[in-house]
Amino acid sequence: MNDHYSDHFVGKLYMPREDKVQTFTGEEIKRGNKEAAAYNYGKDIKFSYSDLKIVPQSDHQAAVSYQITHQSDGKLVNALSLEVWKKEHDGEWRMIRWYEEKSAGKQV
User: What's this model's pTM, rounded to 2 decimal places?
Assistant: First the structure.
């Protein structure tokens, strides 16, 4: 996944337990993804994606939205994500913007 972030990426994430929106650069989101992968290595986790919508904005840009359900350690977290992808000068599609709202989670 880390290969698909633009050098111009800006991401925002709302985490209810912190009650604030965090902002990420491309380098920060890549580092966070690596840390999350290491933290979750060997754990029994499940991700379910639903309600995928792709809205072309031009020949070189599209908005993508979807819902995520994440289950791990007896806790269920729901999230809604919005991504904007752009076809860059080298012809590759990369994510330039991302926004995600997470639920506080509940025990299952």
Answer: 0.84
